[in-house]
Write a structure and sequence with these properties.
Helix content is 39%, strand content 20%. By secondary structure, it is α/β, with parallel strands linked by helices. The strands form two sheets. Strands 1-2-3-4-5-6-7 form a seven-stranded mixed beta sheet. Helix 2 packs across helix 3 (76-89) and helix 7 (246-268) packs across helix 10 (292-310). The protein is globular, with a radius of gyration of 19 Å. The N and C termini lie far apart (49 Å).
Length: 311
């Protein structure tokens, strides 16, 4: 009881004290994966009080014009820890933040980047504006005091899908690739200089894909777009970085299997409870966050398929 009270009290401490606690919650060590290009790897787990919500990958590119950040993590303290880690690599300022999509573990560090333009696709900005507070409250419940000082900051730059997708930062030419499937709007960023593709949650690697807002057909199209981009290194939204298309193939195969299992269950007339507790094939049972992620997929996606079958 007292532990719970302490956690609740910590959540309401003033924002001004937040940076002092950042290193205590997030020990971020950037991994260099290509020239000027670094990644912070998230834990292959679900949100909990031990990992403080740091389960997604984020990264940054150091350019002559300054630092470009891709995703800001699950909290203000994570964002503060990112900025401290970036400062240990370079003295150049952060000049732009890109948010890949509107899921809490990717954007709730935005308020650590005051004064920096934050760019996102239109639907991403709208979702953060309308649902960001609810996502933040959910993460408070799952993570606790690590969320201290976090508030929702809506991206202030909207990426125009009709405009030229190429943006130059010094000699790094970034291609902004607008897709959808994992969420209503998924931004991938390809650095034409290094061949690094920051794929966001379009791609998972050795971790079960999270599908609450997933559209199977759209997601497969996004994976095809990623495969056709000409990348040399892919940074998935969750899981290890790869120098091949294994994460894309794994994600696509899992989604095909999941869609077929759900459709077959609906055709048989299985209840969600029956389908949820069916054993998983060994290949998919071995992925991180299983069977919890599979059961979450059944919870979110099965009712619509069940209803369409009955209709």
């Amino acid at each position: 009881m007292w532990a719970r009270c302490i956690v609740v009290l910590c959540l309401w401490l003033p924002c001004a004290v937040a940076p002092a606690f950042a290193d205590g919650y997030y020990d971020l060590a950037p991994q260099r994966i290509a020239p000027d290009t670094y990644v912070f790897l998230g834990a292959l787990e679900a949100f909990d009080f031990d990992n403080h919500g740091a389960v997604a990958n984020s990264g940054f590119i150091v350019t002559e014009q300054g630092v470009v950040v891709i995703d800001t993590g699950p909290s203000r303290l994570y964002g503060e820890a990112m900025r401290a880690a970036i400062a240990r690599v370079t003295e150049r300022p952060v000049v732009r933040v890109y948010i890949t999509h509107a899921h809490a573990d990717h954007f709730l560090g935005n308020n650590a980047f005051a004064g920096v333009p934050i760019a996102a696709l239109p639907a991403t900005a709208q979702t953060i504006r309308s649902a960001g507070e609810a996502m933040a409250r959910h993460l408070y419940d799952r993570v606790g005091a690590a969320m201290r000082g976090t508030s929702v900051v809506v991206p202030d730059e909207i990426i125009d899908r009709r405009a030229d997708p190429l943006v130059d930062y010094g000699d790094h030419r970034l291609e902004l690739i607008a897709t959808a499937g994992h969420s209503p709007a998924d931004l991938m960023i390809l650095d034409r200089r290094t061949g690094v593709l920051f794929a966001g949650d379009v791609v998972f690697h050795d971790r079960a894909p999270a599908t609450p807002h997933g559209d199977f057909a759209g997601w497969q199209r996004a994976l095809t777009t990623a495969a056709d981009s000409g990348f040399r290194i892919v940074v998935p939204g969750h899981g290890p970085v790869a120098e091949n298309d294994t994460p894309l193939e794994q994600t696509g195969a899992y989604l095909r299997w999941l869609a077929e299992r759900l459709r077959a269950g609906a055709a048989r007339g299985d209840s969600a409870a029956e389908l949820m507790f069916e054993p998983l094939p060994p290949r998919w049972a071995a992925l991180a966050v299983q069977p919890a992620e599979y059961r979450r997929s059944v919870t979110y996606l099965y009712p619509a398929l069940e209803g369409a079958t009955l209709k």
